[in-house]
């Protein structure tokens, strides 16, 4: 079987992520980001050839996605849990969506266990992603995405700024309430949308980001939370066994 066949035929969870999930998309301007999870067959888990991720894009590699284009990333359950346990914000977000494009019993069990992935490491990852976006906004780090039209219109890349602040808001919520609200709750959502559409000047945007960064740093300073690796391991083993029993 190809990796695509393995991913699509063994899918347990898929959701709409990216700007749409956060509520900060602009209709007619954004691409469509989806993330999914699937369970690999026994031969890929126990053998020498894993099938731990599958990516499909409307545009070819190296070409920027445009309005309506689909960017689909699918992870094996093993890879997803490894990344989520490390606190990867782009991955963790899938577990807090209000609704899903596809969810099986295994997917629901994974979502119910989402608190097991919350840790100080996750908070530090949100902080690290925030800093990276802020550096790109300030021109201190090479851009992985080129948006000269935003710089020409607003004087800086407002999307980098918006993502930096959004990561700060979400990191603070996660480290305060052990929860992520999607879409982003008000009044933060309106601030993010105003920032993205150029309604906030560079200096004020940087001040908002810096203030949120300091709040997140303060929360992390004394945080002792650790992920529940035993619970995650037990869940992964159970879900693999149950899935294999149904497809064998």
Would you write up a description of this structure?
There is one protein chain. This protein is an alpha+beta fold and 248 residues long. The chain folds into 2 domains: 3-116 and 228-247, Beta Polymerase, domain 2; 120-221, no CATH class. The chain has helices spanning 3-9, 18-22, 42-46, 77-85, 89-92, 105-112, 120-137, 148-154, 158-177, 188-196, 202-221, 229-247; strands spanning 11-16, 32-38, 53-57, 70-76, 102-103. Helix 7 (120-137) packs antiparallel against helix 9 (158-177), helix 9 (158-177) runs antiparallel to helix 10 and helix 9 (158-177) packs parallel to helix 11. The protein starts with a helix and ends with a helix. The model has no long low-confidence stretch (mean pLDDT 93).
What is the topology?
Elements: H1 3-9, E1 11-16, H2 18-22, E2 32-38, H3 42-46, E3 53-57, E4 70-76, H4 77-85, H5 89-92, E5 102-103, H6 105-112, H7 120-137, H8 148-154, H9 158-177, H10 188-196, H11 202-221, H12 229-247
Parallel strand pairs: 2-4
Antiparallel strand pairs: 1-2, 1-5, 3-4
Strand order of the largest sheet: 3-4-2-1-5
Discrete helix count: 12
The CATH architecture assignment of the largest domain turns out to be: 2-Layer Sandwich
Residues in β-strands, percent: 5-15%
Number of domains: 2
Q: What value does the Rg take, in angstroms?
A: 19 Å
Residue stretches low in confidence (pLDDT < 50, at least 5 long) are: none
Helix content: 40-55%
Q: And the CATH topology of the largest domain? A: Beta Polymerase, domain 2
CATH class of the largest domain: Alpha Beta
> What sequence of helices (H) and strands (E) makes up the elements?
HEHEHEEHHEHHHHHHH
Q: Let me know the average pLDDT.
A: 93
Structural class: alpha+beta
Largest sheet: 5 strands, mixed
Tertiary shape: globular
- Number of β-strand runs: 5
Give the end-to-end Cα distance, rounded to a whole number of Å.
15 Å
